TrEMBL record, chains A, B:
DNA-binding recorded as keyword: yes
Family matches, as Pfam families: Rrf2
NCBIfam families attached to this UniProt entry: rrf2_super
Name of the featured protein: Rrf2 family transcriptional regulator
DNA sequence: AATTAGTCTATATTTTTTATAGACTTTATG
DNA sequence: CATAAAGTCTATAAAAAATATAGACTAATT
């Protein structure tokens, strides 16, 4: 399961994408529209900013805005940033790899093989689908 | 990521499958062979037993054994039992469904659509692959 | 200068995961 | 039938992670 943090990030990003024309959006507006604790959301938006996904402006008329078009923000990027590994096991993670302690040889480990396939199937979707793909269709 | 509990369960099941000919296997043997805390492993094996996957025998010559052939134990079964939902969001879980609070209509929610696809791709593998498929190949 | 709004650092709370303890029951066998 | 072997059960503890909050600080606008 994705953490609340990641789920909130998706909802916030969707809101920002659906309101690009309004310029910078207040944290408090996103928080109340999406029913997220404002202080918790602050942290999340900051992380997204530090990762280069969002930009911000302080003072009156300030707020957060997308730094890229929704099409350019893959879902996998958001998940890895806020949730960590997408793979089901450390030994099949591309970005957070850790050697398996219990198994002697990954090359002949059947669990490794199956979980690699699961990872590939998942990434095929999450790396190719972007913020644009999760905007509400009408 | 799968929890340690689920990872330990896989390793224990693999060990049991690879030693079917030896009759019931001691918890302590699995624990030391796979470097798992014996008391923690106890709980895990009990859960697997209560779910009908393992059987056990008390007293001398006792231990745990598989109640079904490895082929009949889908990986998804183990994961759901010990880890809960396989889906990335509650609103796309088949076995642990919860309605999404932030979205008005799941039918037109893009996040719902993508995450359903991820779930389907994952389940296609985890429900069709069994304990047999993760045994070490030689 | 005053107000608005994001930034930063720290901490608190809650939940989940991981692990342990110990008394109890069942079974085999000498 | 006594003893030892081995799983069962209930409870609790410890550690880690997830979730949430507080408040002082900085930057921008008017």
């Amino acid at each position: 399961m994705l953490s609340k943090k990641t789920q909130y990030a998706f909802h916030a990003l969707i809101y920002l994408a659906e309101n690009v024309d309004k310029g910078p959006i207040l944290i408090s507006e996103i928080a109340s529209e999406k029913s997220i604790s404002i202080k918790f959301l602050e942290n999340i938006l900051l992380e997204l900013k530090n990762a280069g996904i969002l930009g911000s402006k302080k003072g009156k008329g300030g707020g957060y805005y997308l730094m890229r078009t929704p099409k350019e923000i893959p879902l996998a990027r958001i998940i890895r940033l806020l949730d960590g590994p997408i793979a089901l096991l450390p030994c099949v993670s591309l970005n957070y790899y850790e050697r398996c302690e219990n198994c002697k040889d990954e090359a002949i480990c059947g669990l490794h093989e199956v979980m690699s396939k699961v990872r590939d199937a998942t990434l095929k979707l999450l790396e190719n689908k972007s913020l644009k793909d999760i905007l509400t269709r009408e």
